[in-house]
Amino acid sequence: MAHLCEMQTQVTVKADTSKKHLPDKQDHKASLDSMLGGLEQELQDLGIATVPKGHCVSCWKPIAGKVIHALGQAWHPEHFVCAHCKKEIGSSPFFERSGLAYCPKDYHHLFSPRCAYCAAPILDKVLTAMNQTWHPEHFFCAHCGEVFGEEGMTQGGYKKTSRAFP
Question: Which residues form the LIM zinc-binding domain (predicted)?
Answer without folding.
Answer: 54-113
